[in-house]
Amino acid sequence: QTVVTQEPSLTVSPGGTVTLTCASSTGAVTSGDYPNWFQQKPGQAPRPLIYGTSNKHSWTPARFSGSLLGGKAALTLSGVQPEDEAEYYCLLHYDGTYVFGTGTKVTVL
Amino acid sequence: QVQLVQSGAEVKKPGASVKVSCKASGYTFTDYAMHWVRQAPGQRLEWMGWINAGNGNTKYSQKFQGRLTIVRDTSASTAYMELSSLRSEDTAVYYCARGFAGVAGLDYWGQGTLVTVSS
After folding, report:
1. What is the dihedral of CA B100, B104, B109, B114, to 10 degrees?
2. Of A41, B6, B35, B41, which residue is the least packed, with the fewest Cβ within 10 Å?
3. Of B49, B66, B82, B35, the residue nearest A97 (C-alpha)
4. Is the pLDDT of residue B104 over 90?
5. Residue A86 has pLDDT above 90, yes or no
6. With a CB-CB cutoff of 8 Å, which residues 43-72 of chain B face chain A?
């Protein structure tokens, strides 16, 4: 069973920058894994932010960006706002199936 | 505008089955896929499976093989997720989400359906 691992929690100051990562137990994450990133706030459905490693949806704020970093998928939040406090999940594609990451709780403090 | 509207909350006994619907509007239903994702209370998101709404082909997470069935009714632009042999660990919010551009990702999500399994 494939495991996708994220940092459990990260803390960032308002206006700061934070990078979340997403690692696969099968090896390096590549663009062929089509990394997606989602933001979820309590009691709400997930909100898609990034697809295909680095592509933004029409509603994704410019301060969110996706990339590959050191064999992992990465989500960088630049100029963090208080409303960015949330849980963030990555999603990787494996031969027609998908696996969500363990999730990262981002606290803005 | 794209909308996915799911059926209402369900309470089921262990061993029973549940069928959740997801009605799509605002786009051509058969041009996209539909995924099902669940989230147990306080837990992470869990991908369950998906259906190509055009040809009806499905793919399921190995975890749910044999218990999960995803079908669609193209005339009603609706996808259905049926989970059988329910146990307490299946208590969760179940979401449908539209898959786009082949396997590129998920964009629009339903509001979620709470399924509670309790004796």
Report:
1. 120
2. B41
3. B49
4. no
5. yes
6. 44-47, 49-50, 59-63
